[in-house]
User: Fold this.
Amino acid sequence: MFLAKLLKLQWLYCFLGVVFNMISWLVLAKGGKALTPTAPVSGIVVMVIYGFFLLAGYFKRISLYRALMGIAILILGYGGIFSHFKLLSQSPELYHSVWVGILAISINAFGFTLNSLAALKRFTLEVAS
Assistant:
């Protein structure tokens, strides 16, 4: 996979994370129940920081990009997959619905896969001649 395509997919993940948390925030602001136990504003901030991480790839600072993707794997993999899976299975009432919890895990699993490809340098910079 080319770095440019990987970055586009990672921006998609970032966008999905921000939108998911914005919807959660709007539901909460209207007196409803947040989509997940994650504080929506915190979720938005984390995804915006992740977006800044992607700039290292955009500017082809590959070592920094790979290191930042390693950090993203640890933080977003733990908080976005493991914690949601554990909470959803033990306390599903903390979620707007089980399906919303599964959606949150799925979005983060998508990101985890992309971040793993980046951290393991499973991409090329450009087309070989």
